[in-house]
Design brief:
- InterPro entries: Ald_DH/histidinol_DH, Ald_DH_C, Ald_DH_CS_CYS, Ald_DH_CS_GLU, Ald_DH_N, Aldehyde_DH_dom, LUC3-like.
- Belongs to the aldehyde dehydrogenase family.
- This is Aldehyde dehydrogenase family protein.
- Keywords: Oxidoreductase.
- α4 crosses α5.
- It contains 16 helices and 20 strands.
- The chain folds into 2 domains: about 260 residues, Aldehyde Dehydrogenase, Chain A, domain 1; about 180 residues, 3-Layer(aba) Sandwich (Aldehyde Dehydrogenase, Chain A, domain 2), CATH 3.40.309.10.
- A 7-stranded mixed beta sheet has the order 12-13-14-11-10-16-17, sandwiched between helices.
- With about 475 residues, it is of the alpha/beta class.
């Protein structure tokens, strides 16, 4: 089967609805198109179709399903530029930098990596008397509920292992980025067998219905802790399996042996990738007094070189906040920090009358460890930098919150950094970087940042049902 290539206009025409919900560019406020709005009755139809398609898909071998994922990756690569353009226009992220083109490329790379993992039958006991083997069978139908910050990439994080393990998938995208996910699935379905992947483009009541649907055997959700809690409650009656990647407020601890200029770029992108709209972004930075001013100065220097603007303009690497509600959250937290006496090193003064949801790159120094900007997840381009004099206090502050998605330690001594990292309560702790994910390495949170893991062979296992055959 040959892989077809669409123009941007052709791709947009394939997913918009004649009488749908208006979708505006968060950088310019321009109308992009109208997204379909479907209802719970449509969800019932899609779930029924997914259940009907699953036995044949699940009966295929791992090799056959992996081949299908590789063809899906080919389809994404053939349509990469129109996908990136739509993503930039709807989500707001620029084409360049670690943004729209990067995200689309990551979708193809994740599909290929997931297709390459081996999950063979495991012999548990074979001692002459007992013979027991372990296999992972398909769960059935997976409901994938995605966020608006990395809408295409995180949808692939959910789709790829689910399909690889023989499940069929019904995707519920965020209302903020519906067109992007519809376009992604349109491209994927050009390479996948009919019925294994479908999308329900509905409002919140449809998302709630996914959580309670008796025909859905597993839910994968990436989003806020508050919504995750509601999904847990709603799915309880059906004993639905769950993988939840929820909110984070990632801490970074700088040790006193680093060169501030050498780590400034890593710190910046750890905090400001996707304009700070990343669950596992660096959201609070603890810096020792001895090098505090130097780290602040190095960050200001580097951040000042990173242009922010309309995503389709090739020079920009930072964009707007995706929606006005998120803009208000960031704005309110920074204003509260300013009122408390914290020192704004740069940014903090948005043009509230200008088009788009642009909030300037903001660095806040000399802020209390208990300030709202520190203890609440800002999910935007504002980084609080907390001064410390005792490393034990910094570790205690890093662990004080009820979330634990990621964290990082920055040091010239890797062994020293690893000792500190082992004491931080987070699902992943990076050393001298922050937020980088790898399809081969399991990723998941602790505390109220969720449970279950994604990625790698361990992630595949979470999309299967373990079955032991003993005898």
């Amino acid at each position: 089967m040959s892989t077809s290539t669409s123009t941007y206009q052709e791709l947009l025409s394939a997913v918009v609805a004649e009488n749908g919900r208006p979708v505006h560019d968060p950088a310019t406020d321009e109308l992009i198109g109208t997204a379909p709005v479907q209802d719970v009755a449509r969800l019932d139809e899609l779930v029924a179709a997914a259940r009907a398609a699953q036995p044949a898909w699940g009966a295929k071998s791992h090799a056959e399903r992996s081949e299908a994922l590789m063809k899906a990756a080919d389809a994404i690569e053939a349509n990469a530029e129109p996908l990136a353009t739509l993503l930039s226009r709807e989500q707001g992220k620029p084409l360049n930098g670690p943004n729209a083109r990067f995200e689309v490329g990551a979708c193809a790379a994740w599909l290929r990596a997931t297709a390459s993992f081996e999950l063979e039958e495991q012999t548990l006991v074979d001692d002459g008397e007992t013979h027991a083997v372990l296999n992972y069978r398909p769960v059935g139908v997976v409901g994938a509920i995605g966020p608006w910050n990395w809408p295409m990439m995180i949808t692939v994080w959910q789709i790829a292992p689910a399909l690889r393990m023989g499940n069929t998938v019904v995707v519920k995208p965020s209302e903020y980025t519906t067109l992007s996910v519809l376009a992604l699935c349109h491209v994927l379905n050009s390479a996948l067998p009919e019925g294994v992947l479908s999308v329900i483009a509905g409002e919140r009541e449809v998302g709630a219905a996914v959580s309670t649907h008796e025909g859905i055997d597993k839910i994968m959700f990436t989003g806020s802790t508050a919504t995750g809690s509601k999904i847990i409650e709603a799915s309880a009656n059906n004993i639905t399996r769950l993988t939840l990647e929820l909110g984070g407020n990632d801490a970074g601890i700088v040790l006193d042996d680093v060169d501030p200029a050498a780590i400034a770029e890593g710190l910046f992108w750890g905090a400001f990738i996707n304009t700070g709209q990343t669950c596992a972004a660096l959201k609070r930075l603890y810096v020792p007094d001895a090098i505090y001013d130097d780290v602040c100065a190095a960050l200001v220097e580097f951040a000042g070189k990173m242009p922010m603007g309309v995503g389709l303009e090739e020079d920009n690497v930072l964009g707007p906040l995706q929606n006005a509600a998120q803009f208000k959250i960031v704005d309110d937290l920074v204003e509260a920090a300013k009122a408390s006496g914290a020192r704004v090193l740069m940014g903090g003064e948005p043009d509230r009358d200008a088009p788009g949801n642009f909030y300037p790159t903001t660095l806040v120094a000399d802020i209390s460890p208990d300030a709202e900007l520190v203890v609440k997840e800002q999910f935007g381009p504002a980084l609080p930098i907390i001064r410390y004099t005792d490393l034990e206090d910094a570790i205690a502050q890093a662990n004080a919150l009820d979330v634990g998605l990621g964290a990082s330690v920055w040091s010239a001594d890797r062994d020293r950094a690893k000792e500190v990292a082992a004491r931080i309560q987070a699902g992943t702790v990076w050393i001298n970087s922050h937020g980088g994910v790898d399809p081969r390495i399991p990723f998941g949170g602790v505390k109220r940042s969720g449970y279950g893991v994604e990625f790698g062979v361990e992630g595949l296992k979470h999309l299967g049902v373990p079955q032991v055959i003993n005898g």
